[in-house]
Design brief:
Length: 347
């Protein structure tokens, strides 16, 4: 009889234990469902927020771009003072649009980012072309002097000095680097040591094109920097307040701080970079990066003028638009090993 009671007690105990375990499993399953529902809800809300941000960016970006395009188109046929005012406003709005894009990069898709970058670059090119067409001060001043000299020579019964004027214009072009109006820079030079001071480039667009085996030192803070068709050169520049555009560069060493870097069709080139947003490469090969190390006496002052954040450097965050494999590093760019980085820029 005692053994039966003991067996029933054991069975009762076992039944209670099983019920507890079942209850625990049910509670865990219920909790898992709640957590899964919360995750789905958060994911949906996050997706909705991202879509809202993307829609806001798209509408704002397109509205501001249209405003800038309207400013540029209104320059045609306007008086010089009006054109100057409109171009200044367009330049300011373009820089603001660049900053808006940089601040929005974290939630934009690669496609959206690429489209916006292309639109902004097209806008900056249009701005430079409009400046060149509407305010060609250097070109007109030079031609006026040439015509005046021709007229004076004709009045003195001397032959017009046209043959002398052509070499003079060519010489002027070589010195000024064929940079468009409102720009400065150099072009078509080989094996030269070239410098420009802060007074010459401060808040201006700088264009360097068709340089071979040259060393370039740009002191100051330009608005933008364009490097095109560069071969075997060493180019060092102070803080660029907006973007640096590199196209068709090879076998060169570049160093500059900037807000954004766009590099196209470039091979076997080292870039010593300080960038506050991101660096973007496209159709590039064997491009390597290291942090910006060039220094000169007024560098800190130029950082202040540029508005760049001295403490923020995303030099290792490089987006390759030709490499979309997730989780696999692009083979088109590398980090320069510390032992191989250039430390002495005076040699």
């Amino acid at each position: 009889m005692a053994s039966v009671i003991e067996g029933n007690e054991e069975n009762g105990f076992s039944g209670e234990s099983g019920a507890v375990r079942i209850q625990e499993r049910l509670q865990k399953r219920h909790q898992a469902r709640i957590e899964d529902a919360e995750r789905r809800k958060e994911a949906k809300e996050s997706h909705s927020v991202a879509e809202e941000k993307s829609e806001y960016f798209s509408s704002t970006f397109n509205r501001e771009r249209a405003c800038i395009e309207e400013l540029l188109s209104s320059c045609s046929g306007a008086e010089r003072a009006v054109v100057t005012e409109k171009l200044e406003e367009a330049t300011t709005k373009t820089l603001q649009l660049q900053k808006f894009l940089n601040d929005s990069m974290q939630f934009l898709t690669q496609y959206e980012l690429r489209q916006a970058q292309a639109a902004l670059q097209k806008l900056q090119t249009s701005l430079s072309e409009t400046k060149e067409e509407a305010l060609p001060r250097k070109k007109f001043a030079f031609r006026t002097r040439t015509k005046a000299a021709d007229k004076a020579s004709a009045q003195d019964a001397h032959p017009p000095p046209r043959d002398e004027g052509t070499p003079l214009e060519t010489s002027r072009t070589q010195v000024d680097g064929a940079a468009p109006a409102e720009q400065c820079g150099f072009s078509n030079m080989t094996s030269e040591f070239i410098t420009k001071t802060a007074e010459e480039i401060q808040k201006r667009d700088v264009l360097l094109t068709h340089l071979t085996n040259c060393k370039v030192r740009l002191f100051g803070s330009p608005s933008t920097l364009h490097l095109k068709h560069i071969d075997g050169c060493e180019i060092l520049c102070g803080p660029v307040s907006s973007s640096v555009f590199v196209d068709n560069c090879r076998n060169s060493v570049l160093a500059f701080p900037c807000q954004q870097l766009r590099t196209h069709n470039t091979t076997d080139t080292q870039v010593y970079l300080h960038v506050t947003s991101r660096a973007i490469i496209e159709d590039c090969r064997a491009v390597s990066f290291a942090p910006f190390t060039w220094s000169y006496p007024t560098l800190e002052e130029d950082f202040t003028v540029s508005g760049l954040d001295r403490a923020r450097n995303n030099w290792t965050e490089v987006d390759d638009f030709n490499w979309l494999a997730a989780g696999i590093p692009s083979p088109n760019w590398t980090v320069i090993p510390e032992a191989d980085r250039k430390a002495n820029w005076d040699s």
